[in-house]
Design a protein that fits this description.
Elements (H helix, E strand, L loop, with lengths): L1 H38 L4 E5 L2 H14 L11 E3 L4 H11 L6 H7 L5 E5 L6 H13 L2 E6 L6 H4 L2 E4 L5 H22 L1
Parallel strand pairs: 1-2, 1-3, 3-4, 4-5
Helix pairs in contact: 1-7, 2-7, 4-5
Bound molecules: D-altro-hept-2-ulose 7-phosphate and zinc ion.
Amino acid sequence: MDKIIEKTFNDHLETLKQTQEQLSPAIKEAAMQIGNALKNNHKVLLVGNGGSAADAQHIAAEFTGRFVKERAPLAAIALTTDTSALTAIGNDYGYEQVFSRQVYALGNAGDVLIAISTSGNSPSILTAVTAAKEKGLVTIGLTGKDGGDLKNRCDLSLIVPSAVTAHIQEMHILIGHLFCAYIDTIY
Ligand SMILES: O=C(CO)[C@@H](O)[C@H](O)[C@H](O)[C@H](O)COP(=O)(O)O
Ligand SMILES: [Zn+2]
């Protein structure tokens, strides 16, 4: 176990360093797009599966609640939380459409979709991005590995330089917190 702990910390630190070096400008750009949308009375939608669903919810809650600063509540919704919508859409149309149908229903031009997928290949995430593009949303992909299909479908793709799902997720939540830190500076 000692070896596992040491290796995991070291891998995490290496991923952290590479992510800072490679993604800092893209993180800033994405944060500014989100801030711009919110300032123009648009909202942020978030999607993800498994651990990334938890990340989507975590980030949405920082916006509607607060991150660090006491500021106005901001419009963000994780499309991963409504079990009635998820089970109805999944049951009637197939799991691939659980997020896309909600994006068609709730998304408006100028809103932002944050699509979180470590592989960049989850069909439910790819269809959500397709729906978002059709409706004129700004699409930001948080991914990893080789970026998968998500890489070329989003307006902005932040590809964490790691092949390990857990470390990619660890960077995604850090990136989410950086979005929140930027938003705190403009409100
Ligand atoms: O948290 C983990 C693994 O660390 C899992 O729950 C993981 O999120 C799930 O297997 C997801 O279905 C993976 O999907 P994706 O990140 O490739 O889109
Ligand atoms: Zn996980």
